[in-house]
Amino acid sequence: MRELLDCDLIIFDCDGVLVDTEPMTTRLIAESVSHFGWAVDQAFAIETFKGKDMKEIVAMVGDHLGRAVPELTEHYRARMYAELEGGGAEPIPGAVELLDALDALTGGPKRCVASNGPRRKMQASLLSSGIADRFGGMESPTIFSAYDIEKWKPDPALFLHACAQMGATPDRCVVFEDSESGIEAAVRAGMRSVGVGGLTPTAKLSAKGATITVETLHELLPLGV
Questions:
Q1: What is the pTM of this model?
Q2: What is the per-residue pLDDT across 77-127, written as a single tens digit (0 to 9) for each?
Q3: CATH code for the domain of 70
Q4: Residue 222: is the preceding peptide bond cis (ω within 30°)?
Q5: Known catalytic residue at 13
Q6: 60 and 77 assigned to the same domain
């Protein structure tokens, strides 16, 4: 971890890295896709859709069904926002402790959040889990959505945008990601990365080029040793 801390900026993905929403969102994706005629379960949704933006998912479902399903996005998001805004999100185990440890560092790296999700989803996730204030609140310039620039992981544009806005260079950034598309984006951006295991096995994150992988964020504590 000491080598990883030799950086100017840590870029955190949101869901699955800071906030434990992935089991809920992958379940809802599976249910929504099934509603429109492609019967899939949560395991299939994790394997096939996790880390992809909704435009890509809608296109995949449309290709499979042989008809366009633009209403899939609204169907999924209405259910997702209802659950998230009901206060059901919790921090990922170890996330609060890791942020506490970063706060305690003198002259430590800056940090931000960069997610494929729309700002409303990020807001619901971060506020519900109590983590939003750790990044200056939802109006902070340290929170970045792919919808702001219309580029989604695995395109590296979001990470490069966050890096530039935060005054860093790619070689001095470390990305925390739990999806294959996120790790791929970090590699393409020329950034080091920490693959956080969960619904996606660490072996798959390693195969995409993660600098290191951990099963839980607790493995990174204490910092600096």
A1: 0.86
A2: 999 989 888 877 899 999 999 999 999 987 889 999 999 999 988 988 999
A3: 1.10.150.240
A4: yes
A5: yes
A6: yes
